[in-house]
């Protein structure tokens, strides 16, 4: 569930992770899943279907988003700005930003969005999962966006394995020489707690992780 601690704000789980107190109930697990999925769809994939006004950096007014969801989806009569803010603020992967009454997704967009206002990554190495069949080709030719508008890289081998297992049981992990890429002027942005994004990765920065 999602609740709000009087002293430390919204949190997920039975009690506040900071003070251990039980806060005021805000959303059930079912409501969290429903709103999270709807927000992800609008902010990452199909804002036009909900007729929301999104700027070039992916920002949408929270009040506008709430009205759009209530107008287009049943069973969201309870939805308020605070629910959107709580979902974004407690997302364990850091997939959202809230600022100045607006919200946006920070990665996984399937349409072009300008995310150059995200912080630059300072990681020396990053990681990317591929199937065994893809490995040699990617090492030879580089990484380019497929179903997303950016290439998404993981900050650790473990997170890359986790992401790769969505597609294949035994992913091959590639190492990206992010330090050299950055020195060469490649723009890499930190978009989530463990996720970095870039437009493409040339083959010269990619190697198989031993």
Q: What would you say the CATH architecture of the largest domain is?
A: Orthogonal Bundle
Q: For the largest beta sheet, what order do the strands appear in spatially?
A: 2-1-3
Task: Indicate how many domains the architecture comprises.
Answer: 2
Assign a percent range to the helix content. 25-40%
What's the overall average pLDDT, rounded? 96
According to DSSP, the number of beta strands is 12
Please state the structural category: alpha+beta
Report the portion of residues in β strands. Answer: 15-25%
- What CATH first level of the largest domain would be assigned? Mainly Alpha
Quick recap:
The chain is of the alpha+beta class and 210 residues long. 29% of the residues lie in helices and 21% in strands.
Give short descriptive properties of this protein:
three-stranded antiparallel beta sheet; Arc Repressor Mutant, subunit A; 6 helices; ADP-ribosylation fold; alpha+beta; 210 residues
What can you see in these coordinates?
By secondary structure, the protein is α+β, with helices and mostly antiparallel strands. The protein has two domains: 2-105, Arc Repressor Mutant, subunit A, CATH 1.10.10; 126-208, ADP-ribosylation fold, CATH 3.20.170.30. It is 29% helix and 21% strand. The protein is built from six helices and twelve strands. The strands form four sheets. It has a three-stranded antiparallel beta sheet with strand order 2-1-3. A three-stranded antiparallel beta sheet has the order 4-6-5. It is globular. The termini are far apart.
């Amino acid at each position: 569930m999602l609740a709000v601690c009087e002293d430390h704000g919204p949190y997920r789980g039975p009690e506040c992770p900071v003070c251990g107190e039980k806060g005021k109930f805000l959303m059930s697990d079912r409501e969290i899943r429903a709103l999270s999925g709807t927000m992800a769809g609008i902010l990452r994939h199909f804002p036009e279907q909900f007729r929301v006004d999104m700027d070039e950096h992916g920002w949408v007014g929270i009040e506008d988003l709430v009205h759009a969801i209530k107008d287009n989806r049943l069973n969201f009569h309870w939805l308020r700005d605070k629910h959107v803010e709580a979902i974004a603020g407690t997302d364990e992967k850091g997939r959202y930003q809230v600022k100045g009454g607006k919200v946006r997704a920070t990665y996984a967009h399937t349409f072009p969005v300008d995310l150059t206002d995200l912080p630059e990554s300072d990681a020396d190495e990053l990681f990317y999962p591929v199937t065994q069949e893809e490995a040699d080709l990617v090492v030879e030719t580089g990484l380019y966006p497929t179903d997303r508008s950016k290439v998404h890289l993981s900050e650790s081998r473990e997170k890359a394995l986790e992401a790769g297992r969505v597609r294949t049981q035994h992913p091959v992990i590639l190492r990206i020489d992010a330090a050299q890429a950055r020195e060469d002027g490649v723009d890499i942005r930190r978009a989530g707690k463990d996720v970095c994004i870039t437009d493409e990765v040339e083959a010269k920065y990619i190697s198989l992780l031993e």
